[in-house]
Amino acid sequence: MPRMVKELDVDTSPGYRKAAYYLLSSMNQTVNPCDDFFEYSCGRWISEHPIPNDLSTYEIFVSVREKVGEKMRELYDSKQLTNSKAVNTVKMIYHTCMDTNRLRSMQGEEIVKAIKNLGNWPMVYGEKWPEEKFDFTEIMIRIAQTRFSSIFMSIHVSSDQKNISRRLITIDQGKLALGFGTREYYLNAKNYASQLNAYKEYIIDKAMLISYDARISRKRSEIDKEADDIIEFEKNLAQIMVPEENRRNYTLLYHQYNLSELPIFMSEMDWNKYFRAVIPNDIHWYLNKDPIINIVDVEFLKRLNALIKICLIK
């Protein structure tokens, strides 16, 4: 290591030592940093942590989350009760979800119920799907109440970057179905043809299984066309999204407007109805004050509004 680091009077706590270990284990100190600083600083991490087949990116934060997940699984797998009511409740839910015999007997019953709650799925229900009753705001409300997130938009509460003593409702662009960092998959279909074809087959297979569980007869050829429509819509969605490399200037990701002003940017959403449906009644007084909302990217919201208008409702 460089001499200046050795001469520093640093903390020798266990936490510091562990952090130092992680940093050093990521470096390739056989390389001269003046020749290739990137390889020097993280070359060992890259060589020892190839991107898993089920992910498009892999970083230290993902690795840490995986380790936390492993520890949590050990905790939940144990049938021994703890002194925490919250932990015991989560353990009970976990064991219910892991009851494979029960899940097999139910088949797709629960997911069919969830789809019906969201207004059914035209890919499964075909012509039985009530297109004339489609209500974008109502769908977004049901999605939020079902705890699905980041579909079309990410609507959440976060700290005000310019006043950390308060928190704001924040509206940001959502995520693509293939996950974080997959925008190029949709925009460069030629280079990622195999990935998109695999994704299409996945959609069709799932729709066929759910159709069977819903006791609805659908031909694979019918679903094939609708799978193409889904991917085409996602390509359009990827087109209007801002790439992550253009979202590093936080000053440009800070636009405050009152709740009453949101229809200016996205008229397809009844914002007042949405927030009153997803926010507990005892906090509606906050909505009555026409609160400040932070819109991360105003132009994205406008483009999404236009996309929702011109695309087929399905």
Automatic annotation (TrEMBL):
The lineage of its organism: Eukaryota, Metazoa, Ecdysozoa, Nematoda, Chromadorea. GO terms for biological process: protein processing. Belongs to the peptidase M13 family. GO terms for molecular function: metalloendopeptidase activity. InterPro entries: MetalloPept_cat_dom_sf, Peptidase_M13, Peptidase_M13_dom_2, Peptidase_M13_N. It comes from Cercopithifilaria johnstoni. One of its GO terms (cellular component) is plasma membrane. PANTHER family: NEPRILYSIN-LIKE 4, ZINC METALLOPROTEASE FAMILY M13 NEPRILYSIN-RELATED. This is Peptidase M13 N-terminal domain-containing protein. It comes from the Eukaryota. Residues 33-308 form the Peptidase M13 N-terminal domain.
